Amino acid sequence: MTDTKIAYEDFEVGGTIEFGPRAVLAEEMIDFATQYDPQPMHLDQAAGEASLLGGLAASGLFTASIFMRMMCDGYLLNSTSQGSPGLDYVNFRRPLMAGDTVRGRTTVLSKRESASRPGLGFVSVKHELFNQNDELVCEMANTGMFLMRDGGAAA
Amino acid sequence: MTLDAALAIGETVTLGRHTFEADEIKAFASKYDPQRFHVDEEAAKASVFGRLCASGWHTAAMWMKHTVASFPATAERARARGATLTFGPAAGLRELKWLKPVYVGDTITFTRTAESHRALVSKPGWRLLSSRCEAHNQNGEPVMRFVSLTLVKAE
Asked: What is the pTM of this model?
């Protein structure tokens, strides 16, 4: 099983992973906003139109959360990922609107082996989320931890 | 009215606290971050985290929930200082760090400290507010930290 998973060795600097597409429904945006970010512009069409966002638009954290899910389905769940201690930045470049269809791309910026934990490596990546017009909606960068093939076999 | 006073620059506000239960950890993660250590107690035991823990995005979303709940008090304080606040969308996050896992049963306290602001040339009347955002567990240990960049209007 382990060899079929994406491990540290499989990431190539400059390489990209594409994932999606995913349609974003008004009801799931509203459901998230109701629970975590109940600002009128994320809950209501008219309030969204009256806001800077120009329509019913997602909470930034909803955008980040579905972006995470798309990465999980795209490759993380089928990898030796050991999680990530955080992100360098997240930029919300344009609103994610109800009815949009988004796709994602991860680009490997650099990688290095852990000095303290044999079998573990750090992969620095940039993630970009585009809408159906190929406009950048969200970008983020982080360093994820991945086991090497042998390390993965041991885990 | 000074903008610094209206935006409470340098003042740390305790937004509230939340105890993370297993059901909500799994419910959030199953939608947005279904890595095994967020959705399955047994698998979490075998993972680097040792126990079921919340998705970092779940912790961030709960920070947002408490922030939005604090908006009326934030606006009231600004009014007492002679300003009317309008809250706009988020522009991004910086240096997001998940410092320790948030485990089942942890009670997390959320804070926000407004640090600086500047005029947005592209959006007349709006300012970009930079805030230090933190979450601590019941032992006083920091579990999450980031800088939020949010649009705000103070008139």
From this structure: 0.95
